[in-house]
Amino acid sequence: VFAAVQELAPGISERDCIAEFAGLRAAIDGDDFLIGPSTKRGFFNVAGIQSPGLTAAPAIADLVVEMLRDEGLAFTPKGNFVAANPKAIHFAALSTEEQIALAAHDRRYGRIVCRCELVTEGEVADAIDRGAATLDGIKFRTRAGMGRCQGGFCTERCMRLLANKLDISFPDVTKRGGNSWLVTEHSTSNHTYLRPGSDTDDMEDAFL
Ligand SMILES: Cc1cc2nc3c(=O)[nH]c(=O)nc-3n(C[C@H](O)[C@H](O)[C@H](O)COP(=O)(O)OP(=O)(O)OC[C@H]3O[C@@H](n4cnc5c(N)ncnc54)[C@H](O)[C@@H]3O)c2cc1C
User: Fold this and answer.
1) Ligand 1 test: best mutation among 28, 45, 51, most atoms within 8 Å of CB?
2) How confident is the model at residue 54 (pLDDT cuts 50, 70, 90)?
3) Ligand 1 centroid to 48 CA: how many Å?
4) In this prediction, does ipTM exceed 0.90?
């Protein structure tokens, strides 16, 4: 893979790599997506969705709704459907003046949890309030851990915030649920974990 990358960008060095990822593509024969009713009535294929499947997802959803409607499926709107979630604060995207004002209003936005992506404690806390219960849940919602150091510094901070906010023990925090623990040793001893925002908290007070 790297040889092919170097053909495209000869200046790139292996030392520039900070993390490597691999993904599975659910490929099928042919170049196009397979979308539509199958021979079994009521069973629809939405398969072989290779790149740019993510970009195409909203359009695919609209198409499938139309197909299902054509097949005679009646759609009843849900009373509790939330059409648009309130937009979360993305601290890094604010102007310096807005950042300073926000941090002055709520000190949690003055404490940087992830330096690489400039993610604040306030954003992590908000992500947990919106349902994040794992390290990846925080990462997907806030970008904490996605930067240059790949979570080298913020992993422990995010884990601490999760443990405190969800009232679980530090070792029970997982990367993405199940048994994906981040620390191997489970102890029943009485560890004291710092409350985020406490005076002894070592998070960086970047603005205040
Ligand atoms: C490395 C990589 C980079 C990409 N970059 C882009 C990009 O930049 N832009 C873009 O538009 N697209 C991109 N894509 C493609 C995009 O990610 C896919 O097209 C899209 O995710 C397909 O969506 P899907 O819902 O069909 O399948 P998936 O997203 O694969 O979802 C399938 C889900 O089914 C679950 N599952 C599988 N088997 C079972 C089972 N037996 N029981 C229960 N659950 C099961 C899986 O865990 C998964 O959550 C990329 C893909 C890869 C791999």
Assistant:
1) 51
2) very high
3) 9
4) yes
d(CA 173, CA 157): 12
| 14 alpha-carbon distance from chain centroid | 27
Q: Is the pLDDT of residue 190 over 70?
A: no
* Side chain identity at residue 57, one-letter code: A
Q: CB neighbours of 31 closer than 8 A, spacing ≥ 6?
A: none
- Asked if residue 81 belongs to a domain, the reply is no
Specify if 84 maps to a domain: no
Take atom 25 of ligand 1 and give the residue whose Cα is closest: 49
User: Do residues 138 and 60 both lie within one domain?
Assistant: no
Nearest CA to ligand 1 atom 29: 54
Counting the structural domains of the chain, the total is: 2
CA–CA dist 178, 189 (Å, integer): 22
**17 plus 103 within the same structural domain:** no
| Domain match, 56 and 96 both | no
Pocket of ligand 1 contains residue 55 by CB under 6 Å: yes
Whether 79 is covered by a domain: the verdict is no
- Measured CA to CA, the distance from residue 187 to residue 65 in angstroms comes to 50
45 lines ligand 1 (CB under 6 A): no
The reply to whether ligand 1 has any atom less than 6 angstroms from the CB of 52 is: yes
The answer to whether the CB of 58 is under 6 A from ligand 1 is no
Decide if pLDDT at 10 tops 50.
yes
In a domain, 97, yes or no: yes
Mean residue pLDDT across the chain: 88
- Report the nearest atom of ligand 1 relative to the CA of 53: 19
Domain region containing 10: 2-70
With a cut of 90, say whether residue 1 has pLDDT above it. Answer: no
Q: What is the mean pLDDT of residues 67-78?
A: 92
